[in-house]
Structures are given as C-alpha cells and as structure tokens.
Design a protein that fits this description.
six-stranded mixed beta sheet, binds adenosine monophosphate, binds magnesium ion, 7 helices
Length: 423
C-alpha cells in the first residue's frame, strides 16, 4: 500500500510542525491506496438516483425521436417563404403532438402545428403563431422576416441513436434519470455500494436516551457521521460507542473490518492518556498516524485493517466533520466511482480581517452571501473552536486559507468551498 508514513506526536499546539503532512499529501496518499469497487447490480431506474453507473450507457434511440415543432404556429416549406413583402397560405390540416399527418404540404399551403407535433411531410420551418396573421377567410399571412428551418427540433439533436450518453462511473442525478427515462431504460446497471462501518470511542460518551453522569457527554459524532454518510451511495453499519479499553477497541476494529469495506471511527487518535487506539491499531494493520498541517483536525489515522480501509478521525465534533468532508467523502466517492472529486472553489470578498499563521491550511467555517451590490462576500460563522459545532451548523461554506497565507485583510478576495452549489 502506498501510504505516506509520518509518525509524530500530535499536539494541540498551534505552531506549524516541520514533520506534519500537508492536506494535499494526505489526499494523495489516500487516493493512491484506494481500490475502487467494481462489482455491479441491476436496479430499477428510480432507485438509481445517487448511485454510480456500472457500464457505459449507449442510446438505443434518437431523442427527439422525430423532427418536431418547437412552437405553436404554422409549418410550411422554408423555400415557400416570401423573400420580401408578404404571402398568404391556405391551412390544410392541424398537427398535434403525438399524431402524424400523411398528406404532403404543397406550395402556398401551411399546417397549423402545436409544440412537439411531428413536422408534416413537405414542411421544414415553423412560423410562430404570434408572428402570423389569420385572415377572415381562414388563410394565414406571413411576412419576410423568417428564415428556413427556424423553430424546428431535429430528430436526434439532443441524443443520436448509438451515441454514448453517460460513461461508467457517473454519479446519477435527477436530470440523468430524466434523460435515461427518455431513452426507455427501466433498469440500470450500477456499482455495488461500498459498506461503511463506524463507531465512536470514548469513556465519556453516552448514547442519546441514557442518563448523563458528571463529566459525561452525548455522543454527537455518530449522528453527524451517520448524516454525512446518508448523503452518499454507501451502505451504513453503525457500531455504537466503544469504551477506551484495549480489548473492546481491538474487538470493535476487527468486527468492523470484517463487516465493511471502510471503517471510520472518531476520537482516540490524539495522545490523551486514555487514547489506546493507536496502540491497538498498530497491532491490527498497516497504519499511518498523521499530524496534518491543517486547522482544525490535526491528528488523522489512515490505513488498512484486513481488506478494509481505515480512517481514524479526531474526536472534536467540528474536526470530525471537516476531516470527513476533506478526506473521507472524496475517498468514498472515489471508491464508489473511480474518480476523486474536485471541490468547487469560488472567490468571495472577506467581510472581516482574518488572522492566520503560515504553515498550515485553515478551514474557517463561513457564511457566504451576496451583499447589497450583488457581490459574493464571506465571513466566519461564529467562534471557531473545534468543539463548537454550532459554527458548522450556521456555516454554508469553508473559507480555505492556503498554507502560505499569513492573514486576510478586510475586503480581500478569499477562496471559498461552498457546502452545496445551491446556496
Ligand atoms: P479525543 O480525540 O478522543 O481526545 O476527543 C477530543 C474531544 O472530542 C474530547 O473533548 C471528546 O470528549 C470529544 N469527543 C470525542 N468523541 C466524541 C463524540 N463521539 N461526540 C462528541 N464529542 C466527542
Ligand atoms: Mg477520547
């Protein structure tokens, strides 16, 4: 396995660390270690939403299937349009969507036509009804502003029969299902979902519904992790909370690795006294214990237990979500599809000055919005401590401050990674 092995003692000190691994190096190491899923299954079209196409999709038909009108109006031959002045035409028939007309339209004739109706024989042009004058005797007067071929959708102009519609590995979205339905696909071949097992570690953690003793907290990471996994094409296995006890941890890691393709845990990867995770993991598989040049979320364990990939995320609730977004989510997408996704980055004006120390990437939870002049602006979503999860709830983006950045002035352009492309 091509992991970058950097073993250091992570600490909460802010200073950048010469032995730390950059975000880019960590992504490369993870990417290099991935073995994308290649098994496939058949599912009904509707169940394919959010799944990954398992084979290339070739169109069996033309879309549209017949040359048809893009407008309500009058169909005629383009060669019969007036070069100047006006010309009058006799209306010989009405063409409706879903019907065909056998009779040929000759010179001096036109056909009343509705949007989507196949073009009658002898016609190749549509004059929209708003631009045609209907005379008292029922004939139609058309002037010289029109061009041959206008307002007609050609058969196969969207998709030609035999052409490649979607490549294997594509994540299927709502519009894709519409396209595939227009081609008549009732079922699709999709990749099998990776199985992801996850659990939380920590003696202080209680599950919701249990009473909290002094010093105990509810396990929130399992809920944010579950929610983030739910948005992905994966099968989820929730293994609960595991105590800071070497035997319990060993058993949980082994069980998770036997059940899943990917194991994700939170907590226990820093050097706190009760953090036995490292010691146990070293005995179980090929592991790298990284200190990342990023804030928040410095410690991250990555490796393999048996055939399963392993991500040991930090315990702090914000760091869990950030490291999931930056490393686990792209890795899962790559595992599912074979492609490592590139995040959409936009530029926005910072509404405030931001302090920043060079030497690490900082991900500031931000609020991206338009100002009164319609420019994109961004500012922090509140206190940025890595335990302050409300800063993540309020945020709709990360402000990504590069390693070399030494601070941002009020009004300066910064790079922003929106959580969703629909703001
Ligand atoms: P650790 O990495 O285990 O040292 O945890 C770092 C911090 O995150 C501690 O304050 C933990 O109490 C907290 N923490 C760890 N796991 C969870 C969890 N599942 N839910 C909420 N907070 C957690
Ligand atoms: Mg812990």
């Amino acid at each position: 396995m091509t992991t970058v092995r950097v073993i250091t003692q992570p600490s909460c000190a802010d200073a950048s660390d010469a032995s730390s691994l950059s975000v880019r190096q960590a992504r490369q190491a993870i990417h290099g270690a991935l073995r994308p899923i290649d098994s496939v299954e058949q599912v009904p079209l509707r169940a394919a939403l959010g799944r990954v196409l398992g084979s290339d999709c070739i169109s069996p038909v033309d879309v549209p299937g017949h040359t048809n009108s893009a407008m309500d109006g009058y169909a005629l031959s383009g060669s019969d349009l007036p070069a100047d002045g006006v010309r009058e035409y006799r209306v010989t028939a009405t063409a409706l969507a879903g019907q065909t007309i056998a009779e040929r339209c000759g010179n001096g004739q036109c056909v009343r036509i509705m949007t989507g109706a196949p073009m009658p024989p002898g016609t190749d042009t549509v004059v929209m009804q708003e631009q045609a004058e209907v005379l008292d005797d029922g004939r139609v007067r058309i002037d010289a502003r029109h061009s041959a071929g206008q307002n007609v959708r050609q058969a196969g102009e969207d998709i030609a029969a035999g052409s490649l519609v979607f490549e294997a590995g594509r994540f299927l979205r709502a519009a894709d299902l519409g396209v595939l339905a227009s081609l008549g696909f009732a079922e699709l071949c999709v990749r099998t979902k990776p199985r992801v097992a996850f659990f939380s570690t920590g003696d202080e953690l209680r599950s919701i519904g249990e009473p909290l003793a002094e010093g105990e907290i509810y396990d929130s990471n399992r809920y944010s992790l579950h929610a983030m996994l739910t948005e992905m094409p994966v099968d989820i296995i929730d293994l609960g909370v595991v105590r800071d006890d070497p035997d319990a941890l060993q058993q949980a890691f082994s069980q998770a690795a036997a059940l899943a393709d990917v194991v994700v845990t939170s907590g226990g990867v820093s050097v706190g006294e009760a953090d036995y995770t490292k010691q146990v993991l070293e005995g179980l598989g090929d592991m790298s214990f990284w200190t990342l040049a990023m804030k928040p979320g410095r410690p991250l364990t990555f490796g393999r237990i048996g055939t399963a990939m392993f991500f040991g995320l930090p315990g702090n609730p914000v760091a869990v979500m950030l490291t999931f977004h930056q490393f686990v989510r792209p890795a899962l997408r790559c595992l599912a599809s074979g492609h490592w996704p590139q995040p959409l980055i936009v530029e926005a004006r910072s509404r405030v000055a931001l302090n920043k120390r060079p030497g690490r990437v900082e991900f500031v939870r931000g609020i991206l919005e338009y100002d009164a002049e319609g420019r994109l602006t961004v500012g922090p979503s509140g206190a940025q401590g890595s335990g302050i999860l409300t800063s993540m709830s309020r945020a709709n983006c990360y402000i990504v401050l590069a390693e070399e950045c030494a601070g941002v002035a009020d009004g300066e352009l910064v790079r922003v990674e929106p959580f969703s492309t629909l703001l």
